[in-house]
Design brief:
heterotrimer; A alpha/beta (154); B alpha/beta (168); C alpha+beta (402); A: 154 residues; alpha/beta; 5 strands; B: 168 residues; Beta Polymerase, domain 2; two-stranded parallel ribbon; 4 helices; 9 strands
Chain lengths: 154, 168, 402
């Protein structure tokens, strides 16, 4: 947190706590990782206890979990969806394919080698597919990031 | 009644004579012989008539086109393979046509089996074979402005596509 | 229709007293309408992945529906040409990611048939056990997400809970939950874990209770029946000519199951019924029938699992990798090999030119061919019905786009 701004430190803590406890997710499952994301929302792993509710529209969500391979055809749509999300917004890149192209890095003529070529990413969750527990850890890392976020730079 | 593949080939020979080429057989297992053998079609223009014959004759009745695939043979020729089966008589058959890369035109069999519609669109998209007579021949998996036909052996991956870097 | 009509006229913002006129003299206002094109997807909660549907509407009624694919085209066929035969198996997994065991089985069978390799009996048993477990897991997702599409949230949670039990069994054996790389050409990657037998017995008992629960909650629910009966009717001759397979074909009353009609592995020794749609609540071939076929297949898979556990050759201690060839190099030729996936007929057309890589590996994916029938079966229904129809086709975009 920015030192020296004593006046708003208390408010920052409050705002950040509120933000990280209710990160609403935009349901954007692309490929196999989407099934593990759905399993993370289901009863065994229960992502909803972290405050993550799936919302159908980008305008009503805080985070977008890119789960699955982003192809060249899909990349422009991902960008449009990212731009439609209101600030502050966070992106979790779930899985090998959206981190760096995954198993399709060598001969994929239609695969975008990592979603960070079109949008900025906050947390990368490795795995192919990552276990639901790994996604939850990635979510908690994102919550750490939000907790130390400063209002004056938001 | 289920017919032997040799018997089906004889029927086609009597009906179409010179338009048919040779029979290629795969011998590694019983399954491979049944599903890996195919009949070459010499004259591409007769392909639709042969398929209609195979579908409509009472003892052949090939009512289901299982797969229509395209192959780049490497020696400047492209092939299209047709695997079909009959759900009533329980027999299978395969045909193959070969065209050169410069004149890659094959008659469309969309009027014979409707499942060929999307298979042929994919053949055009991936291999660049033009199916003459197809009602709506446009790319199905890639964008309309994607450069080249990817499954050809001499395809080069583009460096940039719509401003995005494609290679790793 | 009434013979007289009360005509109310509004003049200068005031309603005049009603006049009674004969019905023939009333002229309805002529409305000018045009068709609207609605874009569904590629990001949409219920398109089961990245599918874009361009729907042409006349009011609420669907005039035409054009699917646009390719948003998940991951170049499987190009990768298959660059990898060796065993290295292709992880890519095959990732195509139909809900039925990875069945897809692996299909590909391994294709290469084994090309080579002429026979696998030991114990390996066949393990393969069929896991294939049927995967079939149940896939149908659980299909039924759960279909309920979500139609508006029911609870069956989704019950189905995913049971799916976790199946994934635990897979994880104990080969370490992976979703994408396994387990069924190799000529054998398996790991031997079956001894705990799996006990887990499987317990699972069968619990799952029968869940099957009944889902039937009570979803299948025989009046709302569900009204939303799916008589919707999206597919005629059997259109289905066969259009290449449909799996529950889509069997829902239209055609009794065609590759485990029965073109058997492979040890399916000839197993006793199970092939489920077909009979028009239980509506016409034969509607959405309800396809859902009903999946529910019946789920039950039949449980029966197959019980039979397998009874007949299991426990004293057989063969190494599961004993028949894996040291070098996989089929002779020059080609083959088209097919197996029954939860979605339909999965076919592999492999051309070999005597090398260690497949020269060409084309996949006949059932979801691709079934999806091509979507425009045919959705004309004339409402937009909400279109979502129900799409859910009943049960597509997996990884397989449609490869």
């Amino acid at each position: 947190m920015e030192s020296g701004n004593v006046l708003i430190t208390g408010i920052e803590t409050l705002f950040n706590w509120a933000r990280l406890s209710s990160l609403w997710q935009m349901g954007f499952g692309l490929a196999c990782c989407a099934i593990e994301m759905m399993a993370a929302s289901a009863s065994h792993f229960d992502m909803m206890r972290f405050g993550v509710i799936p919302r159908p529209s980008p305008r009503q969500s805080d985070i977008m979990i890119i789960s699955g391979t982003v192809t060249l055809k899909m990349a422009s749509r991902v960008k449009i969806l990212y731009e439609q999300m209101p600030d502050p917004k966070y992106i979790i890149s779930m899985g090998s394919c959206s981190n760096c192209g995954g198993p399709y890095w060598e001969h994929g003529y239609h695969v975008l080698k990592g979603v960070d070529r079109v949008i900025p990413v906050d947390v990368y969750v490795p795995g192919c597919p990552p276990r639901p527990e790994a996604l939850l850890e990635g979510l908690m890392k994102l919550q750490e990031k939000v907790r130390t976020q400063s209002l004056s730079r938001a | 009644m289920s017919m032997d593949q040799q018997a089906i080939q004889t029927r086609l020979q009597t009906a179409f004579g010179d338009q048919i080429g040779e029979w290629h057989e795969m011998k590694t297992s019983a399954y491979a012989t049944k599903y890996g053998s195919y009949l070459d079609v010499k004259n591409v223009d007769y392909l639709r008539d042969i398929c209609l014959f195979l579908r409509d004759e009472a003892d052949l009745k090939f009512d289901n086109l299982m797969l229509l695939s395209t192959v780049d043979n490497g020696d400047k020729t492209l092939s299209a393979t047709y695997h079909m089966e009959s759900t009533t008589h329980r027999h299978v058959f395969a045909l193959k046509v070969t065209v050169s890369v410069d004149h890659a035109r094959v008659p469309s069999v969309t009027g014979v089996w409707t499942s060929a519609n999307w298979h042929e669109r994919e053949g055009w998209d991936m291999m660049g074979i033009e199916f003459v007579g197809h009602p709506d021949l446009r790319r199905i998996l890639l964008d309309e402005d994607y450069p080249g036909h990817p499954l050809r052996k001499d395809f080069k991956v583009p460096d940039f596509y719509h401003g995005m870097k494609v290679p790793y | 229709m009434a013979e007289t009509v009360q005509q109310r006229i509004i003049r200068n913002g005031q309603t005049m007293p009603a006049k009674v006129v004969p019905a023939e003299k009333v002229e309805p206002r002529r409305l000018k309408t045009e068709e609207m094109i609605l874009n569904v997807g590629p990001q949409h909660p219920s398109t089961h992945g990245v599918l874009r549907l361009e729907v042409v509407l006349d009011g609420e009624m669907v005039v035409d529906c054009v699917p646009h694919l390719g948003y998940l085209h991951r170049c499987f066929e190009k990768h298959a040409e660059a990898m060796t035969y065993p290295q292709v198996i992880p890519y095959v997994d990732r195509m139909d990611y809900l039925a990875a065991m069945n897809s692996d089985h299909g590909y391994a069978l294709a290469v084994e048939r090309m080579l002429g390799v026979e696998v030991p009996r114990k390996v066949e048993f393990i393969r069929v056990l896991f294939a049927e477990l995967q079939r149940i897991a896939s149908h659980l997702v299909a039924v759960g997400t279909y309920g979500l599409d139609v508006g029911a949230f609870t069956p989704f949670l019950y189905c995913f809970r049971d799916r976790e039990y199946i994934l635990e069994m897979f994880e104990k054996t080969c370490g992976a939950r979703l994408l396994y790389n387990y069924i190799w050409v000529g054998g398996l990657s790991h031997d079956i874990h001894p705990d799996v037998f006990g887990m499987c017995k317990k699972f069968i008992k619990d799952n029968r209770a869940t099957h009944k629960q889902v039937n009570d909650l979803l299948t025989f629910n009046k709302i569900f029946v009204e939303r799916t009966a008589n919707i999206g009717v597919l005629r059997p001759d259109v289905a066969i000519n259009g290449g449909a397979s799996g529950p889509m074909l069997r829902g239209s009353g055609v009794k065609w199951d590759l485990r029965r009609d073109d058997p492979y592995s040890i399916y000839p020794e197993l006793d199970f019924e092939v489920a077909v749609g009979t028009g239980k609540f509506g016409q034969v071939g509607d959405c309800f029938d396809r859902h009903w076929v999946r529910m019946l297949e789920w039950e039949q898979s449980l029966n197959i699992l019980e039979q397998l556990l009874e007949k299991w050759p426990h004293e057989d201690k063969t190494d599961v990798q004993s028949a894996v060839p040291k070098r996989i190099k089929p002779v020059a030729g080609e083959i088209y090999s097919r197996t029954e996936n939860p979605r339909g007929e999965l076919g592999f057309y492999i051309v070999s030119k005597d090398g260690i890589n497949p020269y060409r590996c084309k996949v006949r994916s059932p979801a691709f061919v079934n999806l091509s029938l979507l425009p045919v079966i959705s004309r004339g229904y409402l937009v909400a019905d279109l979502i129900a129809i799409l859910g009943s086709v049960d597509i997996v975009l990884g397989e449609v786009d490869r």
